């Protein structure tokens, strides 16, 4: 790791004023070696930041540490019953929060499944949403790929077993955040503080950026902008949610595919609204709109759940090595829909 | 089905306490490094002034400057938890934290676990159940298990497995680790 | 044999303890102790004694090489090839050598000179190294080394390397300079065509054509196994201190004495001037057997800088350049008669050990079962990848995956129970008993036909066998010291890499001396002591415990003589128990161990013993290594649950029935076996070194994407241990570390077949591969 300066920000506004680039910008180079140590970057828990710096993928001149800022901590309930999760809330705090575990089960479950206890104790929600993707070419200083400003993507002709099957044109990263999958299913918004002092709230869906729009970033965070909180709109009492993932390891592993499902069932058991978001299969958490449409107004049962699983695959363009994600997703969606509606997992299973 | 969605407990604001003095101090501090910076680490109940570059990880500071080599570095990337220490009451991977950001928080390392020469019960149990082979992952595992028991004296098997889910042990001590902690959990039963 | 030495005849317990013991008569050297009783009659041996170094390890006090800090020590860093195949046009160290804080720099490869080019053959190959005041300065200075590389065409995959137009790894006979990866290093004169070297055909016999002609049933399959890396938690590490008087080295090694010999040879120093220490070693699994290029580099830097040098690998260096288990592609054909007897077995295997050779996997197929006609053709395929080296059960672990699935498949075709088939074809009475015990423990009778479960999650049960030779290091010795204050020390250079050999030594000595294991001071891992065996080849316990017992017995005899002369009795009348020496026939005539020691003529007496030959001789020997007459068996059973909709395999339970001669510490053995099984589960389901075919780089050179089993992936592991007495040595103990690893992946694969009715012939058995095998995926590669 290169040497750098250290500065503890005294307020989010100060951090915003100090920070000169986003981490994604600082990782862009023409030659492949981040040379000029220009950037002043912001660090929260530092889990991803240190990882990138150890590999030499980013060499900031200075780190501005926001990890001790009180304003950015904590989970609170706001006037209109929405929830505000401070950007520095750790994944461990989210996973263990009794209120969240009830009202937003899928989010607590997703947070609990991400990484290890040690990392969850440090990883902040803001940092988690803003971490760089895990594409192994991106993470290797030896591969100067498109997303780092290079000339081509190594994944297409290389090993793409873990890559995206949706929106994977040009670059096939999958979004690394496990909680994001659940957050999107709850229609979360992020609150951003601009260096000039303006705050804006952006729906998570609009926050993420697909490769077709911009290959060099995963989100619209502007240089100097600080993510201050994540907002969860008020939930309807009847909603039920679940997060499911499949990984190669039972625990402490990145998912091969994941899904978060939120459904509102009316008294008659009809599905009023369904939100189905796929994880680890696209450059951003991926809404399965056709599946959502299919369930809306329908009774949830084995048949409709299965149809939703099939519909979730619409538009997939798997690469040479990752077509296996299709049956995986179909299964996950079917199971998650049934589980969210609290129906037996699979009629054939018993 | 989800009554909690309405009855969301009030006052769950887990804000850190505002400390005006703390703010004063950091105002003075401003930009540090990139060269060595004086810091103070509170480790195992002792206060250690030391000089570290901002890039020094906590694991490096413990092992290097303080000579506390019981904390091991195996992946240097958060992937194996061999470097686990306690930051106040939380188990963290010391390879993924900078020494400079620890501040006033208490660090407990494996060297600080055996109080006054008497082994911690987890250490005793590891020995009794042969939950040690090459031993390189062991200090980290001991720290995780001790933290688990501090918060939950009677963990079940799944809780133990979750508590150690971040650890890699190439020698394969997991079964004996779980057995050791289960025995402790039972023994503690009153 | 040592004919000039007097010998005597003794009767030894013989057979499997739980079935009742016989006796066997052996001729043994006169200076070795009388036969040891079976474990049931002993007080320390065969008991779950606490690990000798557990206290140090649970408190963090144990000192590993990475913890060694010497005054004035510098930190080394290695410049590595960024290209899988390249010629070095020019190499200039000087800008780095004169950088701030740098005190020594050298080239690791021969620098290009007078038209002799320097060729690099894998990403990560060491090019140069330097030493600086801090690790950060050293890493920074590496960037100042000027190297001009000329990229050459390369190939890193097995298929690509076998194509006629493949880039060639070694022109001419240059491969002979390459390291060996495996078992009986098949270094000899084998033909080489392109990148393919071989076949090596050891174990072939009979007429394979006639064998298949005589077959009534034939099974045929192609199996793939991946490259696995050792992933020792402690990385490769050395601290080398060159000084006026010679060389002091601390090293994370499996063989202190071997490293000393290699260093002495390489640096032309007398053996007596080289000291190698390994106080605690954080795992080895085969990868820390040699001094290696990195070890020599650190020593050379120390000689240059005249100060101690520390070289510790980062995890990525560890993954790319510290050895690995070679891959294999095995074409297995087995012919049998309807009664199960094998008529023919042919195994053609291509494996890549990268730039090394020795990827053969033929041992299992040629030796495990009775078969008159066997054809083994083992080919090494060179690729531009980091060199392999031995890894836990080298060759056999890969071989078992194919062979044991082939036999399972054959049983299916014969409509025989896999156990019954093995009763027909496996000559080993020990494994027969192991099959019986394992079947009983796992509940084999509950086993259903393949794919019988309804519903998406299907359970299955399978088993597989292992074979490993019982190895001995004949150059293995220890010293026993008795001090006047009663302290007993056992000294040997043998190192404890986590196997618990220190505990075992204390037990053996304590048993002989009538003391407690904690009374025995174990001083090992230092070549200042008599040369001990390596911790590889499952030979440590087998090699070092007999001399330890012999030396203890000799010390006891000496002390008895001293006491006997004071008491004016025949020393033969003395015995020792619970720390008291007394007359056999008059127990009240006694003296404590301490008092007896206090009466010694000198401050310290000492006995030295080396490993004698096995009492019944060896099957073979070469250099310091020998093979005992017996083999080590091992049969493992696995129960799995396969989610056919996600492809996830969950190993729920493994029953491992193992033998290691006389078990000395069942608890430690259980730990070892659990470790072997877990490494096998990991190999079966998760691990894979992934090289990018377009750049030659390892894509997962870490512990994030290179996946090892964690606590949640751990099945319930039940270890059943046989006591197998043969009267072969003073302790009759053999090894277990490798046999415990060999059968696991095959047993899991057979269980998966039993669950889903589809054979998984490629490792690791990931969800993706399972879904493909089940036909759930349309398109895409295997
Ligand atoms: C071994 C391992 C396994 C993992 N497994 C998982 C997993 O399964 N699922 C998962 O989701 N994650 C996983 N992670 C990733 C981990 O969760 C993230 O690295 C972590 O959440 C990042 O949070 P942080 O607070 O440490 O962020 P930092 O490292 O501090 O920052 C990350 C990035 O966000 C920026 N940033 C941080 N906070 C703000 C803010 N408030 N405003 C503006 N910019 C900001 C930083 O500049 C930086 O670019 C894993 C990590 C490791 C090492
Ligand atoms: S998938 Fe994206 S990040 Fe990965 S190599 Fe291609 S361009 Fe780079
Ligand atoms: S060394 Fe810190 S997690 Fe592996
Ligand atoms: S005991 Fe060796 S890695 Fe855990």
TrEMBL record, chain A:
Entry keyword set: FAD, Flavoprotein, Oxidoreductase
Superkingdom classification of source: Bacteria
Pfam families in alphabetical order: CO_deh_flav_C (PF03450), FAD_binding_5 (PF00941)
SUPFAM superfamilies: CO dehydrogenase flavoprotein C-terminal domain-like, FAD-binding/transporter-associated domain-like
Domain FAD-binding PCMH-type stretches: 1-237
Transmembrane segments: none
Classification via PROSITE patterns: FAD_PCMH
Keyword Oxidoreductase: yes
Listed InterPro entries: CO_DH_flav_C (IPR005107), CO_DH_flav_C_dom_sf (IPR036683), Diverse_Substr_Oxidored (IPR051312), FAD-bd_PCMH (IPR016166), FAD-bd_PCMH-like_sf (IPR036318), FAD-bd_PCMH_sub1 (IPR016167), FAD-bd_PCMH_sub2 (IPR016169), Mopterin_DH_FAD-bd (IPR002346)
GO molecular function list: FAD binding; oxidoreductase activity
PANTHER family to which the protein is assigned, alphabetical: XANTHINE DEHYDROGENASE SUBUNIT C-RELATED
Protein name per the record: Xanthine dehydrogenase family protein subunit M
Lineage: Bacteria, Pseudomonadati, Pseudomonadota, Acidithiobacillia, Acidithiobacillales
TrEMBL record, chain C:
Boundaries of every Aldehyde oxidase/xanthine dehydrogenase a/b hammerhead domain copy: 59-153
InterPro entries referenced in this protein's UniProt entry, alphabetically: Ald_Oxase/Xan_DH_a/b, Ald_Oxase/Xan_DH_a/b_sf, Ald_Oxase/xanthine_DH-like, AldOxase/xan_DH_MoCoBD1, AldOxase/xan_DH_MoCoBD2, AldOxase/xan_DH_Mopterin-bd_sf
Molecular function (Gene Ontology), one example: oxidoreductase activity
One Pfam family of this chain: MoCoBD_1
Keyword line: Molybdenum, Oxidoreductase
Cited PANTHER family: ALDEHYDE OXIDASE 1-RELATED (PTHR11908:SF132), XANTHINE DEHYDROGENASE (PTHR11908)
Name of this protein: Xanthine dehydrogenase family protein molybdopterin-binding subunit
Native species: Acidithiobacillus sulfuriphilus
Organism lineage: Bacteria, Pseudomonadati, Pseudomonadota, Acidithiobacillia, Acidithiobacillales
């Amino acid at each position: 790791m290169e040497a750098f300066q250290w500065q503890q920000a005294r307020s989010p506004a100060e951090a915003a004023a100090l920070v000169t680039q986003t981490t994604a910008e600082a990782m862009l180079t023409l030659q492949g070696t981040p040379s000029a140590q220009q950037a002043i970057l912001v660090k929260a828990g530092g889990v991803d930041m240190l990882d990138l710096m150890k590999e030499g993928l980013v060499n900031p001149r200075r780190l501005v540490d926001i990890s001790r800022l009180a304003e950015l901590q904590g989970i609170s309930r706001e006037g209109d019953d929405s929830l505000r999760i401070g950007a520095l809330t750790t994944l461990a705090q989210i996973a263990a929060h009794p209120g969240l575990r009830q009202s937003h089960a899928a989010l607590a479950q997703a947070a609990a499944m991400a990484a290890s206890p040690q990392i969850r104790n440090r990883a902040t929600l803001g940092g988690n949403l803003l971490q760089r993707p895990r594409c192994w070419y991106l993470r290797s200083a030896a591969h100067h790929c498109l997303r780092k400003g290079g000339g081509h993507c190594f994944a297409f002709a290389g090993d793409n077993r873990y890559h995206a099957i949706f929106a994977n044109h040009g670059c096939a990263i999958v979004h690394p955040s496990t909680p994001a999958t659940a957050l999107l299913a709850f229609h979360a918004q992020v609150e951003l503080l601009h260096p000039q002092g303006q705050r804006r709230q952006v729906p998570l869906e609009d926050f993420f950026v697909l490769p077709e729009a911009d290959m060099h970033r995963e989100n619209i965070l502007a240089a100097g902008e600080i993510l201050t909180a994540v907002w969860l709109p008020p939930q309807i009492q009847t909603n039920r949610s679940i997060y499911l993932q499949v990984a190669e390891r039972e625990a402490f592993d990145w998912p091969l595919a994941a899904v978060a499902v939120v459904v509102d069932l009316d008294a008659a058991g009809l599905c009023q609204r369904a939100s189905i978001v796929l994880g680890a299969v696209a450059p951003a958490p991926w809404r399965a709109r056709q599946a959502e449409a299919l369930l809306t107004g329908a009774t949830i049962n084995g048949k409709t759940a299965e149809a939703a699983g099939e519909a979730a695959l619409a538009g997939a363009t798997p690469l040479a090595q990752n077509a296996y994600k299709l049956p995986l997703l179909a299964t996950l969606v079917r199971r998650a829909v049934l589980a969210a509606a609290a129906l037996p997992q699979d009629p054939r299973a018993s | 089905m989800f009554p909690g969605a309405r009855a969301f407990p009030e006052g769950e604001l887990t804000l850190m306490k505002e400390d005006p003095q703390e703010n004063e101090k950091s105002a003075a501090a401003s930009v540090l490094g990139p060269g060595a910076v004086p810091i103070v680490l509170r480790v195992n109940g002792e206060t250690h002034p030391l000089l570290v570059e901002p890039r020094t990880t906590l694991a490096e500071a413990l092992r290097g400057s303080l000579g506390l080599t019981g904390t091991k570095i195996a992946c240097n990337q958060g992937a194996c938890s061999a470097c686990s220490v306690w930051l106040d009451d939380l188990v963290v991977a010391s390879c993924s934290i900078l020494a400079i950001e620890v501040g006033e928080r208490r660090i407990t390392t494996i060297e600080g676990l055996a109080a006054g020469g008497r082994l911690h019960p987890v250490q005793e149990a590891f020995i009794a159940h042969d939950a040690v082979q090459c031993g390189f992952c062991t200090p980290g595992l001991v720290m995780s298990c001790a933290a688990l028991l501090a918060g939950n004296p009677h963990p079940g098997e799944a809780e133990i497995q979750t508590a150690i889910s971040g650890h890699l042990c190439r020698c394969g001590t997991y079964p004996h680790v779980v057995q050791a902690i289960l025995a402790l959990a039972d023994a503690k039963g009153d | 044999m040592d004919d000039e030495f007097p010998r005597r005849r003794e009767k030894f317990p013989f057979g499997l303890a739980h079935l009742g013991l016989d006796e066997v008569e052996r001729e043994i050297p006169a200076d070795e102790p009388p036969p040891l009783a079976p474990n049931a009659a002993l007080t320390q041996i065969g008991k779950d004694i606490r690990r000798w170094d557990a206290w140090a390890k649970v408190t963090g006090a144990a000192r590993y090489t990475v913890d060694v800090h010497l005054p004035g020590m510098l930190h080394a860093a290695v410049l590595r090839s960024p290209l899988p195949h390249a010629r070095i046009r020019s190499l200039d160290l000087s800008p780095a050598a004169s950088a701030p804080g740098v005190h020594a720099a050298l080239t690791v490869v021969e620098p290009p000179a007078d038209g002799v080019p320097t060729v690099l053959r894998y990403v990560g190959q060491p090019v140069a190294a330097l030493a600086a005041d801090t690790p950060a300065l050293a890493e920074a200075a590496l960037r100042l080394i000027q190297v001009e590389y000329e990229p050459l065409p390369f190939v890193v995959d097995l298929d690509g390397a076998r194509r006629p137009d493949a880039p060639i790894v070694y022109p001419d006979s240059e491969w002979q300079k390459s390291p060996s990866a495996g078992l009986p290093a098949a270094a000899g004169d084998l033909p080489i065509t392109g990148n393919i070297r071989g076949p090596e055909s050891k174990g072939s016999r009979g007429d394979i054509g006639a064998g298949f002609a005589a077959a009534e049933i034939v099974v045929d399959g192609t199996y793939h196994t991946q490259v696995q890396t050792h992933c020792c938690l402690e990385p490769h590490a050395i601290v080398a201190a060159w000084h006026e008087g010679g060389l002091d080295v601390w090293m994370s090694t499996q063989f202190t004495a071997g490293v000393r010999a290699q260093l002495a040879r390489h640096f032309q120093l007398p053996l007596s001037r080289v000291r190698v220490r390994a106080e605690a070693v954080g795992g080895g699994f085969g990868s820390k057997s040699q001094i290696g290029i990195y070890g020599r580099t650190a020593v050379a830097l120390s000689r240059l800088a005249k100060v101690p040098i520390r070289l510790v690998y980062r995890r990525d260096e560890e993954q790319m350049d510290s050895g690995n288990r070679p891959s294999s592609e095995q074409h297995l054909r087995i012919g049998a008669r309807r009664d199960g007897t094998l008529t023919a077995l042919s195994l053609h295997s291509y494996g890549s050990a990268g730039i090394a050779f020795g990827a053969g996997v033929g041992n299992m197929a040629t030796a495990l079962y009775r078969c008159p006609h066997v054809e083994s053709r083992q080919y090494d395929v060179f690729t531009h990848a980091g060199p392999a080296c031995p890894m836990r059960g080298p060759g056999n672990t890969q071989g078992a995956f194919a062979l044991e699935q082939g036999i399972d498949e054959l049983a299916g075709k014969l409509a025989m129970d896999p156990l019954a088939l093995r009763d027909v074809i496996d000559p080993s009475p020990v494994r027969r008993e192991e099959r019986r015990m394992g079947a009983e423990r796992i509940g084999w009778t509950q086993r259903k036909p393949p794919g019988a479960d309804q519903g998406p999650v299907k359970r299955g049960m399978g088993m597989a066998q292992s074979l490993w030779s019982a190895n001995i290091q004949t150059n293995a010795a220890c010293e026993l010291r008795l001090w006047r204050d009663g302290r007993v020390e056992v000294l040997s250079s043998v190192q404890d890499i986590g196997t618990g050999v220190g505990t075992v030594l204390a037990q053996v000595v304590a048993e002989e001396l009538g003391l407690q294991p904690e009374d025995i001071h174990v001083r090992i891992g230092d070549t200042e002591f008599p040369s001990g065996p390596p911790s590889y080849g499952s030979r440590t316990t087998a090699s070092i415990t007999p001399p330890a017992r012999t030396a203890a017995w000799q010390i006891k005899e000496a002390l008895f003589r001293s006491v006997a002369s004071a008491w004016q009795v025949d020393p033969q009348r003395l015995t020792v128990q619970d720390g008291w020496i007394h007359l056999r026939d008059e127990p009240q005539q006694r003296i404590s161990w301490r008092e007896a020691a206090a009466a010694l003529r000198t401050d310290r007496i000492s006995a030295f013993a080396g490993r004698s030959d096995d009492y019944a001789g060896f099957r073979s020997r070469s250099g310091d290594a020998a093979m005992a007459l017996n083999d080590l068996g091992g049969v493992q059973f696995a129960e799995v649950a396969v989610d056919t909709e996600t492809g996830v395999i969950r190993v729920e339970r493994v029953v491992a029935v193992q033998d290691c001669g006389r078990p000395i510490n069942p608890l430690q053995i259980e730990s070892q076996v659990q470790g072997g099984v877990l490494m096998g589960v990991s190999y079966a389901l998760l691990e894979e070194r992934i090289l990018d075919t377009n750049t030659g780089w390892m894509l997962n050179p870490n512990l994030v994407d290179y996946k090892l089993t964690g606590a949640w992936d751990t099945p319930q592991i039940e270890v059943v241990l046989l006591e197998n007495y043969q009267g072969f040595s003073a302790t009759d103990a053999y090894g277990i570390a490798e046999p415990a690893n060999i059968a696991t992946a095959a047993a899991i694969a057979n269980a998966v077949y039993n669950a889903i009715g589809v054979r998984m012939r490629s490792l690791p058995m990931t969800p993706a591969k399972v879904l493909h095998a089940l036909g759930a995926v349309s398109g895409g590669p295997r």
